[in-house]
Amino acid sequence: MPSKRNTIALTPQEIRTLMETERVVQVASINPDGTPHLAPMWFILGDDDSISFTTYGRSQKIKNLERDNRVTLLTEAGHEYNEIIGVSIDGTAEVIREPQQTANIMKLIGLKHSDQMTNRTIDTHSKSNEELPPAAYKRVVVKITPKRYRSWDHGKV
């Protein structure tokens, strides 16, 4: 008899769909004293299943990730117990301090939140001659490479 954990686990495609449709991911980094630092972030999912978001370059999460690049992400949906669906992702973070790439990720996240994301191919290295928004110089990209997934869909029970 399969375990309950295996019964409620999401398939890789279900995980991808959840990550493409949910707007907020909880990002847990490790503070200098070992306690978790948890912050909600808007994000975008790459074709390689990486998760990218932008944040201020001097934020606590950046200080934490530059010291220790281990990270755990969580996104979930649902209100009633039998509707709860989610995924927890352990991974490693890369901090990218390149204003053009930051501006591009900011634009893609904006499109996702305006429901205008029609092209699922995400070019995180697009170059443009247009002027960058001032925030692109204060913010950085954090790109998460997933290493382990734990998922659940209580509707499968």
Q: What structural keywords apply?
A:
157 residues; 4 helices; seven-stranded antiparallel beta sheet; globular; Pnp Oxidase, Chain A; alpha+beta; 24% helix
Give the averaged pLDDT, no decimals. 91
Strand order of the largest sheet: 2-1-5-6-7-4-3
How many discrete domains? 1
Identify low-pLDDT runs.
none
Distance between the termini: 14 Å
Largest sheet, in brief, is:
7 strands, antiparallel
Work out the number of β strands: 7
Going by CATH, the architecture would be: Roll
Give a topology summary.
Blueprint: H1 4-8, H2 12-21, E1 24-30, E2 36-42, E3 44-45, E4 51-56, H3 60-67, E5 70-77, E6 85-96, H4 99-113, E7 139-153
What does this structure look like?
- The chain is α+β, with helices and mostly antiparallel strands and 157 residues long.
- It has helices at residues 4-8, 12-21, 60-67, 99-113, and strands at residues 24-30, 36-42, 44-45, 51-56, 70-77, 85-96, 139-153.
- The protein has a single domain, classed as Pnp Oxidase, Chain A (Roll).
- It is 24% helix and 36% strand.
